[in-house]
Write a structure and sequence with these properties.
The protein is of the alpha/beta class. It has 13 helices and 15 strands.
Amino acid sequence: MRVYADYNATTPLAPGFEGYLRSFLGEGYKNPSSIHAEGRAAREFLDRERTITAGYLGAEADQVIYTSGATEANNAVLQSFVDMYPDGKIILSGIEHDSVYKKAQALGALGYQVVTIPVDEEGKLDVTLLDFALQESPALVSVMLANNETGMVLPIVDIAAIAHEAGSVVHTDATCALGKIPLLFNELDVDYLSFSAHKCYGLKGVGGLLVKDVTAFKPQILGGLHERGNRAGTENLIGIMSLNAGLKYGLQDLGLELQRMEMLRSRFVTGLKTFKREMKIHESSTAQLASTVNIAFRGFHAETMLARLDLEGVAVSFGSACHSGTFEPSRVLLNMGISEEEASSTIRFSFGRMTTIDEIDFILGVLKKTLEE
């Protein structure tokens, strides 16, 4: 038996999508920018899918810009801001995804103003420092909706209110939150929101950016007039179709699914406590994704444990990054004030709609065996 417990890295495709894809392949080659009948049919398909995407995410169709994924969308928002406001300031938290964090670092190296707001051991921003950083505007505040390593949910609505009062704009990377908590663009009151299809049961290589006011966005990929001039490149119709299939599957009966996930998390954590081993769960006391459990198994090295779990049939991830074959403690955990030793003993378990009670029990059995050995 093998159990997949790495949903925060990528998700399986929505059930039934393969059949839909096979029936679409004969038609999906068409170019929406062509003016002949086939092109017009593809354009109608694209317009229809854009409206569907907007409906799932609580946005208007003209606010949706399809991209290759959240990494492109995140990079585009930050670059667009400094292009429009060279004297502006980028403000971010210390736990952002690398596609935000490293882009901000690169812009800082070019001389743009970049401020990183510290977080506590639960990933909470120091609001006092945020207020101070916002004293000089214009500024772009980029804070993720939910952290992909720990599952901590950040108070984006409150952060947006603070930033807007100071005359600044707000971007949130909602990739890890999509399909795991209720998420509506018009209720979050942010100016930009990034997402990827493959984190919500769609294909890799497609995602999007929601922009409240497209006049406040400067296109970063230039060429044709695709995406209403906001992102050049022939649209990936099959990928966009998969995005909406994933959203349909990932968002259906979300309230019931969240209850089920809370039950699975409770069963998993309760089982862990029976091991009588020293461990710590890195989580938020206020808002947490039930589907993510980030655990430090003190006294054990995460790299060794992950390899053993893999051999025993459990696929999980480090609570840290692996660069060029060298194991390094997670920047996110270190920036939360967690020691290097503890960060090096951390593993992330992430679950999804296909995770079952039997799989949770199997993981617990493998973990118990691994820790005892």
